[in-house]
Amino acid sequence: MIERPEKTEYYLDIARVVSTRSTCLKVLIGSIIVNEDQIIATGYVGAPRKTKSSMEHNFCLRQKLQIPSGTQYEMCRSVHAEQNAIINAARAGVSTIGGDMYIFGKNRVTGEDMDTFPCFICKKMIINSGINRVICSLSGKEGKYKIFTTEEWIKDWQQSDIIEDKYKYKG
Fold first, then answer.
1. Residue 107: beta bridge partners?
2. pLDDT tier at 62 (50, 70, 90 boundaries)?
3. Is the dihedral of CA 166, 42, 129, 159 positive or negative?
4. DSSP for 78-97?
5. Within 13 A of 169's CA, how many CA atoms are on the CB side?
6. Is 143's pLDDT higher than 80?
7. Is the pTM of this model over 0.85?
8. How far, CA to CA in Å, does 19 sit from each of 36, 78, 93, 152, 157?
9. How far apart, in Å, are the Cα atoms of 44 and each of 9, 28, 98, 111, 135?
10. What is the distance between the alpha carbons of residues 22 and 140, in angstroms, rounded to a whole number?
11. How many of the other CB atoms lie within 10 Å of CB of 169?
12. Sequence-separated (6 or more) residues with CB below 8 Å from residue 55
């Protein structure tokens, strides 16, 4: 019998291939947006168009400045894969409303798959782009993934302040 990958696995495999274009020295992350079973945009971690990437500079600015992972994203040369997929859809004049985003990630240094949950900034962009679901690959679990709905994020943020929850601010 001929075997075919199920759709989620198929789309995550495509996101994996997209990730190989990443120009970040630490991670390979790829993202695709699918709407009505059609890929409408792709994105990977990389420097803005026509600018020099960390690969071309041959060093990571964040590492050089000793910036802890997960903080001060504005100090990175790269645009996140999720952001690039949304931007590429906009450049092509394609609506992301009602679509699904698939994200795959791998640690460039160790070669190990990683959990690919969107950062706080990407979550806000994903919500505003009208995407319905985000399907993220999970580390060490080939063929495993986690599905988030933007509706869940919105509900969470309606019930509690997104900034207070993010930074545990007490004032």
1. 27
2. confident
3. negative
4. PBPHHHHHHHHHHHHT---T
5. 8
6. no
7. yes
8. 22, 13, 23, 27, 30
9. 18, 8, 21, 17, 15
10. 21
11. 9
12. 23, 25
> Distance between CA atoms of 66 and 109, rounded to whole angstroms?
17
Cβ contacts of 13 within 8 Å, gap of 6 or more:
5, 104
CA 77/CA 67 separation, integer angstroms: 13
Q: Please return the burial class of 36, using the count of CB atoms within 10 Å of its CB with bins 0-12, 13-18 and 19+.
A: exposed
Q: What percent of the chain has pLDDT over 90?
A: 68
CA dist 32 and 18 (Å) reads: 8
- H or E element, residue 133: strand 133-137
Helix (H) or strand (E) holding 146: strand 145-149
Burial of 61 (C-beta count, 10 Å sphere; 0-12/13-18/19+): middle
Which tokens is 38 given? 């059609």
| Whether residue 169 has pLDDT greater than 60 | no
The answer to whether 34 touches 102, Cβ cutoff 8 Å, is: yes
* Dihedral sign from CA coordinates of 122, 125, 86, 101: positive
* Beta carbons of 78 and 47 less than 8 angstroms apart: yes
Report helix, strand or coil for 109. Answer: coil
